[in-house]
Amino acid sequence: xxxxxxxxxKKKNVTSSxxxxxxxxxxxxxxxxxxxxxxxxxxxxxxxxxxxxxxxxRYNGQYEPFRYHYWGYTPISSNPYECPTLPENPDPAHEQRxxxxxxxxxxQFLCFLxxxxxxxxxxxxxWEKKHRDTKTLQYIFIAYTTxxxxxxxxxxxxxxxxxxxxxxxxxxxxxxxxLACSCMPEDKYLADDVYRISDVVRGAHSLVNAVGPxxxxxxxxxxxxxxxxxxxxxxxxxxxxxxxxxxTHPILIxxxxxxxxxPWQKPKSKFPSEAWVDASNSRxxxxxxxxxIMLSPLELVxxxxxCLSTRPLKEESxxxxxxxxxxxxxxxxxxxxxxxxxxxxxxxxxxxxxxKLLERLICLLPKSTKRKWYVIDDIxxxxxxxxxxxxxxxxxxxxxxxxxxxxxxxSIRWK
Length: 415
Hints:
The protein is of the alpha+beta class. It has 2 domains: about 105-275, no CATH class; about 275-400, no CATH class. The protein has helices at about 125-130, 155-170, 180-185, 190-195, 195-200, 225-235, 240-245, 270-275, 280-290, 295-310, 320-330, 340-350, 355-365, and strands at about 5, 30-35, 40-45, 75, 110-115, 120-125, 140-145, 175-180, 205-210, 250-255, 265, 395, 400-405. The strands form 3 sheets. A 7-stranded mixed beta sheet has the order 6-5-8-7-9-10-11. Strands 1-3-2 form a 3-stranded antiparallel beta sheet, with no helix packed on it. Strands 4-12-13 form a 3-stranded antiparallel beta sheet, covered by helices on one side. A hairpin with an 8-residue loop joins strand 10 (about 250-255) and strand 11. The longest helix has 16 residues, at about 155-170. The protein is elongated and about 115 Å long. It starts with a strand and ends in an 11-residue tail after the last strand.
């Protein structure tokens, strides 16, 4: 709209107009304005219309709506009726809603001693059919690391392991022992057996550690038993093997490659200072399972996380952290090899009464954005029990993300 000021007309009260659509007049319309000192004529060069602009707040002052949404099932859900089936998994047991893994009453396979200083691996169920009237089967658990005893058939490490196991079994007065390289022969159940080793340790008569010099490239160096034991203690699975072993017998350490003699005997309470670099924390875990101290569920998980996070771990085996926890908690979900490490732990947390462990864990602010999810180091130096979450985790999605129920949020318009 343009405005123009022109000279005062000689004629007064003169109008010459042509009506236009909408009640406006043509460009010849004149409007006389009286001012205190002069008269000014305002000419409208174009038709005039009144425009009123009302400036109202967006969305009536409310927050802008969140425009993103997704409809579907989460891979892991706390509600069993919201869990999709897993058609890519041929095992029908995985099609159950939130399936759990039952604890083993006894190992599936054991090595039985022979009179001629040898052993024979038998299926326990077949042995029990022939010996129904015998007393309860007792066996020792042989713990070792593949860094020191390789599964390579070109080496004689497996024969050495069986020799140590036979010697330890006869010394303990039992006729059976469990050795991982021989007692997990069926590939069909290998995944479940690996993560149910904790049940085998629980039912054992005693724990025996077999240590020896590492593999090729280290033959020239002489190792002490303490050095070899610390190397064995770096394993992730050394924790459940020691923590869940019986308290009634000391742990025996047999060293290969040294002069023959009596094995080391270490009570479980003294074992952390001999084998683990984080003895101050791991000693509390041992005391908890011995019954000398009682840790709360959050204290137990926090200390276990601190210990396990210091162990060397390959990226493809990060899920072992969750599987180690499976042996320490009551209810265990079935192993799903397609889960990430975080999903495996989330599945475990949802299945158990874990005192909102997962909710507390995601509330911590890490000191570094590059740290792993299982490293508990809050930038404000807070612990899990300092957090009181209000919103429960009801599902776990792909990309290691979670679904919260009852969470309040709003989209923010940054200016």
